[in-house]
Amino acid sequence: MKEWLVVDGYNVINNWQDFRKLREENLEHAREILKEKLAEYIAFKGYAGIVVFDAQEVQGVASFEKKGALEVVFTNEGETADSWIERRVYELVKGGNNVFVVTSDYAEQLNVLGSGAYRVSAREFSEEYLLTKKQIAQRSEQLTGGLSRNELGGRLQEHILDHFEKLRRDT
To answer: What is the pLDDT of residues 45-102, one digit of tens each?
Structure first.
């Protein structure tokens, strides 16, 4: 059983405080930052992920791209992210997957719950994302042994360090 995170991209961009000013200045940059955050989050959590942007903000035909384990979807012109998400979530749940949908749209939340998926509001996901960022930093700190630099000496066993020290002194 696979776990999926499906995100209504513009819903998050419009609801997260981090994106308020950026959205007004450069929507494309806001999308890129959201994609980076989502790719990092799902990689750490081990999820498969989809972020959906509807054609209300971007005109043209549907397009798909990959960013690591994150699928990025731009819907067809005139198709809402909500309708695309509803279709895909139904398929994923029917396939036996756990699906978490991030949206603060109440009607979308009801449809998600009705299909058997879990709903997560944009605010709840923001809090979860920040908590996960702290966990990533802690894990990184543990892996580097508390060193501020990524030094080889901090990752070698003592007997190997002793051997290198002996070699250094003999030359």
So the answer is: 999 999 999 876 556 667 788 878 899 999 988 888 999 999 999 999 999 999 999 9
- Torsions phi, psi for 134 (to 5 deg): -65, -40
CB-based burial, 145-160: b 16+ in 10 Å, e otherwise:
eeeeeeeeeeeeeeee
Say how many C-beta atoms besides its own lie within 10 A of residue 131's C-beta: 10
Q: What is the DSSP letter of 145?
A: T
> Is 99 within 8 Å of 117 (Cβ atoms)?
yes
pTM of the model: 0.78
Instruction: Classify burial at 169, counting beta carbons within 10 Å of its beta carbon; exposed 0-12, middle 13-18, buried 19 or more.
Output: exposed
Report how far residue 41's alpha carbon sits from residue 36's, in angstroms, rounded to the nearest whole number. Answer: 9
Tell me if residue 57 falls in helix, strand or coil: coil
Count the Cβ atoms, other than its own, within 10 Å of residue 5: 23
CA distance 116 to 105: 17
Cβ(42)–Cβ(48) under 8 Å?
Answer: yes
* Digit-coded pLDDT (tens) for 145-163: 655 555 666 667 788 888 8
Task: Give the distance between the most distant pair of CA atoms in the chain.
Answer: 74
